[in-house]
Write a structure and sequence with these properties.
The chain has helices spanning 43-50, 84-89, 93-96, 104-116, 132-146, 162-177, 189-195, 212-215, 218-229; strands at residues 5-14, 17-27, 32-36, 58-62, 67-70, 150-154, 181-185, 198-203, 205-211. The chain is α/β, with parallel strands linked by helices and 242 residues long. The protein folds into 2 domains: 1-66 and 148-242, Rossmann fold, CATH 3.40.50; 78-147, no CATH class. The strands form 2 sheets. The chain has a 6-stranded mixed β-sheet, with helices on both faces. Strand 1 (5-14) and strand 2 (17-27) form a beta hairpin. Helix 4 crosses helix 5 (132-146) and helix 5 (132-146) runs parallel beside helix 6. It starts with a strand and ends in a 13-residue tail after the last helix. 39% of the residues are buried. It binds adenosine-5'-triphosphate. The site of adenosine-5'-triphosphate has 12 residues, from helix 1.
């Protein structure tokens, strides 16, 4: 699988207020990387830009055509009247289009994905009736169906219990073992130290992007915190010369 993502001097903003500044680097094919940093550091914005869902102000992002994104659970409307199987089958959307017919094999694949995340008996259940943990399992089932070489996860273990987190983490390691490129925004630094070999520490500017132990050294974490304390939320558009 060719899952390299290259950032070339990338700057991102919201309404011309800078969110991520001049970041360059590569998520190597097959790497497993955590993105960490203070609240408002630009982590979600960066992930969405890599997925092609947020415009790039300056610089360039090079990425494979097929990328799967797990958005933050809080960003999703769970009141939509569709079943678990329908949501899992949405993973075929890129290949079939919104109104394309999904072959029986595609349906079987979605059923198998539900089984793999522990929702085997819940195909027909409306998504609105799921617990937070079951809903996150369902979104992982959709990722399984998407079968993309790059998988982006935004706070995948938020609001789920320890058992669900452990099950979902096993899937993350399975994807890594299959050679996919996996990038996850996380806040639990102990989990990152234990499970993620590479880390990008972001505080709008990149603070460190390397092996996890080195990236999370006390000096880097202090620098990120000091940078966050100095943020001006109303800063104007990025001016590198300033
Ligand atoms: N839709 C939006 N409109 C305007 N500003 C936004 C929007 N989304 C994010 N921002 C701002 O962009 C900056 C980066 O936000 P982002 O959500 O990317 O940070 P984050 O590191 O993911 O934060 P957290 O850890 O709190 O989820 C913040 O200052 C935030 O207020």
């Amino acid at each position: 699988m060719s899952g390299a993502i290259r950032l070339r001097d990338v700057t991102l903003s919201h309404d011309r207020h800078p969110a991520v500044h001049h970041i360059s680097g590569e998520f190597a094919p097959g790497s497993l990387t955590a993105i960490v940093g203070p609240n408002g550091a630009g982590k979600t914005t960066l992930l969405r830009a890599i997925a092609g869902l947020h415009p790039v102000d300056e610089g360039r992002i090079e990425r494979p055509a097929r990328i799967a994104l797990l958005p933050q659970m809080s960003a999703l409307d769970r009141g939509f009247p569709i079943s678990c199987l329908d949501v899992a089958m949405l993973g075929h959307w890129r290949r079939c289009g919104a109104f394309g017919a999904i072959a029986p094999a595609g349906r079987a694949q979605a059923e198998a994905a539900l089984e793999a995340v522990g929702l085997g008996g819940l195909s027909r259940r409306p998504v609105g009736s799921l617990s937070a943990g079951q809903f996150q399992r369902l979104l992982f089932a959709r990722l399984l169906v998407q079968d993309a070489p790059v998988i982006l996860l935004d706070e995948p273990f938020n609001a789920v219990d320890a058992r669900t987190a452990a099950d979902l983490l096993r899937l993350v390691h399975r994807w890594h073992g299959q050679g996919r490129t996996v990038v996850a925004v996380l806040h639990d630094l102990e989990l990152v130290r234990r499970e993620f070999p590479e880390t990008l520490l972001l505080a709008r500017d990149p603070v460190a992007w390397c092996g996890t132990e080195e990236a999370l050294a006390a000096s880097n974490r202090l620098r990120a915190r000091m940078m966050a304390e100095g943020w001006d939320e109303a800063a104007a558009a990025c001016d590198r010369a300033a």
